[in-house]
Amino acid sequence: MEHKITLENIQKNDYFYEEAIKTLRTNIQFCGSGIKTIMFTSSIPNEGKSDTAFSLAQSFSSIGKKVLLIDADIRKSVLVKRYGIREKTNGLSQYLSGQKKQEEIIYSTNVENFYIILSGPYSPNPAELLEEPLFKKLLEDMRRDFDYVIIDTPPMANLIDGAIVGSLCDGAVLVIESGTVSYRLAQKVKSQLERSGCRILGVVLSRIGVEQDRPYYKKYYGKYGRYKKYYEYSRYDKGSYYGPEEEKNA
């Protein structure tokens, strides 16, 4: 029996944002047919990684690709609230802790070709759960069943979750908010990903530049990867993963 949820509050993005996402999609396709499991992460909270991961998954589904979005941000998921999911659901944390089977956590949606695994209830030990063999098995199985598997992970400045996920993925995309994250911190996260053995596919630079009250987009080829894309948005409230001391040191 197929489980289904309805995604609400899916806003229509402007032309510049859509073109940026299409460019991101195209460049990932050019990375090769072996790139199927792709994680999205950031250095600190609220840089736009979840929004970008969702938009990319939606973009792939719009061209007929069967896509699974996995919310591996067990610490502080935003997807249920952001997209108005009202159905009672199971999630990743329940599967990793042995409470649910794979088929009980995969949901089709009202967007054609777009499937989701939600994070599930908060867990006090998400890193330990992600290190379970069950997570590796899940990615291996989903890699066979879907054209692309996109994984949204927590920020990596003070958390190991992203490195654990990265060690099991074909590649990673790092989302960086313009003017917020220092070069030193970005390099730290980049090094963490590299040490995990994860291939860095590229960088998304978010919230950059507004000309005449609207976002703009342009291509850039730099040392982080084969592409970058630029966009600006301010739809969501700020929050924190950390306590005061962690936040200060992030």
TrEMBL record:
Catalytic activity: L-tyrosyl-[protein] + ATP = O-phospho-L-tyrosyl-[protein] + ADP + H(+)
Keyword Manganese among UniProt keywords: no
Residue span(s) of domain AAA: 48-163
InterPro entries according to UniProt: AAA_dom (IPR025669), Bact_polysacc_biosynth/exp (IPR050445), P-loop_NTPase (IPR027417), Wzc-like_C (IPR005702)
Family stated for the protein in its record: Belongs to the CpsD/CapB family.
Organism: Candidatus Lachnoclostridium stercoravium
PANTHER family: FERRIC ENTEROBACTIN TRANSPORT PROTEIN FEPE, TYROSINE-PROTEIN KINASE
Pfam families referenced in this protein's UniProt entry, alphabetically: AAA_31 (PF13614)
GO cellular component, one term: plasma membrane
Taxonomic path: Bacteria, Bacillati, Bacillota, Clostridia, Lachnospirales
Name of this chain's protein: non-specific protein-tyrosine kinase
A single MF term (Gene Ontology): non-membrane spanning protein tyrosine kinase activity
EC nos: 2.7.10.2
UniProt KW keywords: ATP-binding, Kinase, Nucleotide-binding, Transferase, Tyrosine-protein kinase
